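S.,

Sequence below, as promised.
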Amino acid sequence: QAVPAGSHVRLNLQTGEREAKLPDRENGESDTREERRRKRLGKVDVNANSFTSEELKKALAKMKESEKAERKVSFLFLKPCTVRKKFRPIEQLKEEFEKLNMKIETDYEIMVKLISKFNSSASTLDEKVAALYDLEYYVHQV
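The prediction came back faster than expected:
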């Protein structure tokens, strides 16, 4: 037997039967996922033989419309022109920081320096260990 989502189900060990109970409502509000879905979709007969082809076509058209609307909203947030307006290129930022006597390095540049410090014969054991710990941090991010 199919049971609505959000129901409490248990196995009665004395009788060996499975029992199901709808969750209790507080303040008359339903909190089950199935009941929220029913409100959103309207009254739906879950018997598979009760749907006509026209009803299925209408439901499919509604799903497609809502999917298109969701795609349109998400696409608006991903437009490259809006991203370019919000952020400046890294080259421009580097130039501005150089004017302020500050050098900005990317993670890649820092990792290359740490690897060269580790491979350097002039580095002490403590410097090599510190370089490995720092390198571990950057590699973990990647």
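Residues 53-77 form the longest helix (25 residues).

Coffee later?
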